[in-house]
Amino acid sequence: MYCTYTDILALSGTALPQATIEALIVMADREVDSYCSMHGVSASGSNAAIVSASINLSMGYLLTRYRMDGTKEASTLEWSDKTPIDTAIETYRKSAFSSLDTFISQQTSGGFIAGIVNK
Questions:
Q1: Among 3, 8, 95, 102, which is disulfide-ready with 54 (CB 3.0 to 4.6 Å)?
Q2: pTM score > 0.90 for this model?
Q3: With contact defined as beta carbons under 8 Å apart, do 62 and 54 qualify?
């Protein structure tokens, strides 16, 4: 796994069982591996961008699970969450793929970000 249960617990404070969180991490890591593979590179668990992508995708999966099973309610009689869950999920996913794109760019350009120079 590119990130750990402890990483997700520290970020989310979730009360879900460790096995559930680890299953979400495995799903996130498969997505990381698939995205990197589509671009002809292998993910490296020691790379900060890969770890970041795994954490962000795992958080997105956690929020998706909350949304699907009703764990994360938008409001109760005493409390109301103003965070649009779909927006939060999208933000985590965008951050993950931004990290992955940076990693892939570094791997495919020898560490330098290639660009087009206008003449």
A1: 3
A2: no
A3: no
